[in-house]
Amino acid sequence: MFAVSVGLALALPSYGQVSPEEHAQHHPGAATAGPPSATPPAGPMSGMMGGGGMGGMGEMMEQMHGPPPKELYPSLMALPELPPERRAGLERQAHGRMQAGTALLSEGLDQLSRSAPGDDFAAMQAATARMREGLAQFESGLAAHRALAEGTSPRNVALQWFKREMSLLPPAGTAGEAGSIGVSWFHGFVMVALVAFAAAMIAMYFSKMRRAARLLQGLTGGGPPGVAPEAAAPPVRSASSAVGQAPPGDAARTAAGRRWSGRLRVARIFQETPNVKTFRLMNPLGGVLPFAYLPGQFLTVAVPVDGKPVRRSYTIASSPTQQDFAEITVKHEPGGVVSGYLDERVKEDDLLEFSGPTGSFTFTGRECKCILLIGAGVGITPLMSVLRYLIDRSWPGDIFLLYGCKSPRDIIFREELEYLQHRHPNLKVVVTVTRPEGTGWAGPTGRITKELIAQSVPDLASRYVHICGPVPFMESMKKALAELGVPAERIKTEAFGPALGRPEPTSPSAVATAEAPATGVALPTLTFSASGKSAPLPPDKVVLEVADEIGVEIDNSCRVGTCGICRVKLLAGEVTMAVEDGLEPGDKENRIILACQAKSAGDVTVEA
Q1: Which pairs count as long-range contacts for 10-14, CB under 8 Å and 24+ apart, including other chains?
Q2: Euclidean distance between CA atoms 194 and 209, whole angstroms
Q3: What residues contact residue 469 under an 8 Å CB cut-off, 6+ apart?
Q4: Are 376 and 403 in contact (CB under 8 A)?
Q5: What pLDDT digit, counting tens, does each position of 208-253 carry?
Q6: Per-residue confidence (pLDDT) for residue 32, from 0 to 100
Q7: CA-based, 20 to 30 A from 49: which of 91, 221, 495, 514?
Q8: Residue 307: what pLDDT?
Q9: What is the pLDDT of residues 19-37, one digit of tens each?
Q10: 318, 385 in Cβ contact below 8 A?
């Protein structure tokens, strides 16, 4: 603690030494004896704190810590009591020193906060030196104020200083020296300020780490918000009931139905049957997937063909409860561009471009207490996602799966279905094959029929039904279910295989060569207003196909009218659409059409 002697030095640039003139003012008899620091002070402690004793201590402290201490407490031993006018002057100077010290502390803290994030060590060292200087000035003014206010005698002040220098003071927390927590209020303030500064630095560090993670996520495609196998064309969804709600815990990741796009890493490849593979997809950065999905939704993959991206949609066969990965199960169809690429060229650890998830062929267990899943061939993939999800969540309702295949070797997920049925009494699986010859198959044979459905599923009319497979198969199933009393609004369908008999779209590099019919009748003209291009529109082609042929970019995914990604505005003319599932409420009133479905017998202009 600085005391009254600090006040005597406040007017000097450094409060270290007392001038000979000022010393002579208080000690007329010692005017020629040199500065107080070299003159032994009067009193019983002069031998320890004056003359050579103090000089020896100063030399030792200078060797250990640099310059000798600037405090002159030993000189207080010989000082008389201060007159009132001198006391008032010292109080003003002490107050000024406290203000200057506070300013230096504030400047030092500001400089330290600016230099620490950039690892500017020189600036950080200068900042700490400024803070030490400010602390010393504040302490000197505070000590002088307290000494003057408490009326402490100079002799007691000097004795207190001596005890502090010799580590003889009692522990912190005694009356008048410390606050309620055992330290002085000023030191408590400094400690709180330093703790706050450290907390701010830690918060800045984690903020930087989060920003870096978001940047890396963006480079690979990240953000909040499964897939029909390919059979010359992606899935088609027709009449359906209300879309299921997001499962608990996943709502935040599917917020607002935002569509994600980016890269996923192929972590594992499983050979399910001779011509079907499952691709396990993971976040290339590690951790959870950059999107959430509902059981039954699909992803769209883009692969390079002739230098252009070709897209196909595939249902996610895994359960949304597996947040670290998603799996698509793909059948290699003869002539399939994307399925052939995935089957023949993709290896583990490859990165593929994906977008999604999309689709409303979903079931989460909230819609009813019992579900009937009917699938054929590779159409089991969205049904498997639903089944896995319900089992993972220990859904108490009954799950019935009727599955038809050509032969036993074509049964996808065969071992897993057997295992799950053995473990879960509420799961009933019936598999029938159409070609059992020479396989030793002991189960049902032939196609799924009305009789097999009625025999396998009790109380059929009260259940929700999801059907997935080729279009003819789904039509026969809907007819059989209607005859068994199942309301149409309880049936959801999603088709695989050539959509409505339409072949795969032509390669993006193809050039339109459409000519007028032999009768000489001119074809309608399709105009793309934004691109400034136009081309003939044959009656058997849709807007998206013509756009591909002349190089007009229209974003698309499923190409069969279900995902709604190819929605464009119709500016002039009229079109017809075989499938309108991808349209949203109000689209038709605003003349929004699906480019993958729109055909016309007259001139048409679209905004693309």
Answers
A1: 10/90, 10/93, 10/94, 10/96, 10/97, 10/140, 10/141, 10/144, 11/93, 14/70
A2: 23
A3: 374, 375, 376, 377, 379, 404, 477, 495, 496, 497
A4: yes
A5: 888 777 766 665 554 433 333 333 333 333 333 333 333 433 433 4
A6: 40
A7: 91
A8: 84
A9: 444 444 444 444 443 434 3
A10: yes
Tell me the C-alpha distance between 545 and 552, whole Å.
Answer: 10
Tokens of 236: 């088609």
CB crowding 36-47: b at 16 or more within 10 Å, else e = bbebbbebebbe
Residue 39's SS3 state is coil
Query: Would you say how long the chain is, in residues?
Result: 608
Distance between CA atoms of 402 and 162, rounded to whole angstroms? 95
Percent of the chain scored above 90 by pLDDT? 41
Tokens coding 424: 């879960």
| Ordered strands of the 604-606 beta sheet | 533-536, 525-528, 604-606, 567-572, 592-594
Query: CB atoms < 10 A from the CB of 568, how many?
Result: 21
Report the alpha-carbon distance of residue 402 to residue 377 in Å, rounded.
Answer: 11
Contact between 298 and 227 under an 8 Å Cβ cutoff? The reply is yes
Question: Contact at 8 Å (CB) between 456 and 431?
Answer: no
Q: Is the pLDDT of residue 588 over 80?
A: yes
Q: Is 399 helix (H, G, I), strand (E, B) or coil?
A: strand
Going by their DSSP bridges, the two strands 370-376 and 308-315 should be labelled as: unpaired
| Kind plus residue range of the DSSP H or E element containing 534 | strand 533-536
| CA 108 – CA 133 distance, rounded (Å) | 9
Beta-sheet pairing, 325-331 with 276-282: antiparallel
Percent of the chain that is helix, strand, coil (3-state, to 5):
40, 20, 40
> What pLDDT does residue 594 have?
93
Instruction: Tell me the CA end-to-end span of the chain in Å, nearest whole number.
Output: 80
Contacts of 287 (CB under 8 A, 6+ apart): 324
Q: How far apart are CA 79 and CA 579, in angstroms?
A: 104
Phi-psi region of 594 (alpha: psi -120 to 50; beta: other; left: phi over 0): beta
Read off the tokens for 253: 């990741």
Instruction: Kindly state the DSSP code that residue 463 receives in the 8-state scheme.
Output: S
- Partner residues linked to 351 by β-bridges: 265
What single-letter DSSP state applies at residue 69? P
Q: How far apart are CA 340 and CA 456, in angstroms?
A: 37
